[in-house]
Amino acid sequence: MATCDECGEYENLPYQCKRCGKTFCGEHRLPENHDCPGLSEWDDPEAVFDSGFDDSVEGGNRAADTDGIAGRVKRRASRATSTGGIVGYFRGNATYVLLAAMWLTMVGQWVALAVGGGELHNQLFVLESNALWQVWTWVTAVFAHDPVGLFHIIANSIVLFFFGPLVERAVGSKKFLGFFLVAGVVAGIGHALVGVLTGAPVAVLGASGATFAILGVLTIWRPNLEILLFFIIPMKLKYLTWGTAAISVAFVVDPSLAAAVGLGGIAHLAHLLGFVVGLAFGRRNESLANSARGRGGMRSGGGIRGPSGPGGPGGPGGPGRR
């Protein structure tokens, strides 16, 4: 059962707008009933009606009139990035794009291990405190996870799947993507810098910092959101997030305590940094959440029965995981 992105009502037979990619009930399925951004393109004949057919039948004359190849490329790019183009599909679906990126990265990790072993894998996907100059790992490490076990990526995928859309609908796909990446990078680099300062080598990977940031946002926006811990125990989101944050602080202050309870080797500091980024982002964009709630896109009552587990959204894992 889907939820209408305009009014928030549950819909057994939802409609997906081909222009903006969002889901609506029967009442709001028409573009003019949900303020579809594609409506603005009706004032631009090229964006709506230009299929490229004229280019083929008019040949060089039309190309010459529109700056030749440059004009043709510009028109094709405009069609691809319009709400009805390829890029338009990802509007409103950034959460699922991120999920796909995480799992595709996992496949890439397996390939790297098979081709070049652990050295190549770490160079491509692991953010290491003694190799911060490998700037690509600042980003790839956000999407990479433990390539041996699947629990790490599954736990983060579950959190992103259940809670990501709540933030995305309020702030928009583009802003949500930027927030996710910034939170993940800040969490990873922050944890690695502590290793630089202490002289202890640190290697991190995983989206837990970013997913913890999502939970931080919702802690500000919807602290009383009901979730199911381990899919069984009902509780409010604020108790889970603040409780996990407190435990993470204790583990950061005394790493031996984390090791004693079987939660050593987890980047608890990265969890905390992501959570702080989420709290700040949530506070700064609280007006957007209120606006989304007014449209019905974010309900103040009830909640999503989302899961979580020990050690935060990343769950317990091996060395360097966050």
From TrEMBL:
<feature type="domain" description="AN1-type">
    <location>
        <begin position="1"/>
        <end position="44"/>
    </location>
</feature>
<dbReference type="InterPro" id="IPR050925">
    <property type="entry name" value="Rhomboid_protease_S54"/>
</dbReference>
<keyword id="KW-0863">Zinc-finger</keyword>
<keyword id="KW-0479">Metal-binding</keyword>
<feature type="region of interest" description="Disordered">
    <location>
        <begin position="291"/>
        <end position="322"/>
    </location>
</feature>
<dbReference type="GO" id="GO:0004252">
    <property type="term" value="F:serine-type endopeptidase activity"/>
</dbReference>
<feature type="transmembrane region" description="Helical">
    <location>
        <begin position="176"/>
        <end position="194"/>
    </location>
</feature>
<dbReference type="InterPro" id="IPR035896">
    <property type="entry name" value="AN1-like_Znf"/>
</dbReference>
<dbReference type="Pfam" id="PF01694">
    <property type="entry name" value="Rhomboid"/>
</dbReference>
<dbReference type="InterPro" id="IPR022764">
    <property type="entry name" value="Peptidase_S54_rhomboid_dom"/>
</dbReference>
<keyword id="KW-0645">Protease</keyword>
<dbReference type="GO" id="GO:0008270">
    <property type="term" value="F:zinc ion binding"/>
</dbReference>
<feature type="transmembrane region" description="Helical">
    <location>
        <begin position="96"/>
        <end position="115"/>
    </location>
</feature>
<feature type="transmembrane region" description="Helical">
    <location>
        <begin position="257"/>
        <end position="281"/>
    </location>
</feature>
<comment type="similarity">
    <text>Belongs to the peptidase S54 family.</text>
</comment>
<keyword id="KW-0862">Zinc</keyword>
<dbReference type="GO" id="GO:0016020">
    <property type="term" value="C:membrane"/>
</dbReference>
<dbReference type="Pfam" id="PF01428">
    <property type="entry name" value="zf-AN1"/>
</dbReference>
<keyword id="KW-0472">Membrane</keyword>
<feature type="compositionally biased region" description="Gly residues">
    <location>
        <begin position="294"/>
        <end position="322"/>
    </location>
</feature>
<keyword id="KW-1133">Transmembrane helix</keyword>
<dbReference type="InterPro" id="IPR035952">
    <property type="entry name" value="Rhomboid-like_sf"/>
</dbReference>
<dbReference type="GO" id="GO:0006508">
    <property type="term" value="P:proteolysis"/>
</dbReference>
<dbReference type="InterPro" id="IPR000058">
    <property type="entry name" value="Znf_AN1"/>
</dbReference>
<keyword id="KW-0812">Transmembrane</keyword>
<protein>
    <submittedName>
        <fullName>Membrane associated rhomboid family serine protease</fullName>
    </submittedName>
</protein>
<feature type="transmembrane region" description="Helical">
    <location>
        <begin position="135"/>
        <end position="164"/>
    </location>
</feature>
<feature type="transmembrane region" description="Helical">
    <location>
        <begin position="228"/>
        <end position="251"/>
    </location>
</feature>
<keyword id="KW-0378">Hydrolase</keyword>
<feature type="transmembrane region" description="Helical">
    <location>
        <begin position="200"/>
        <end position="221"/>
    </location>
</feature>
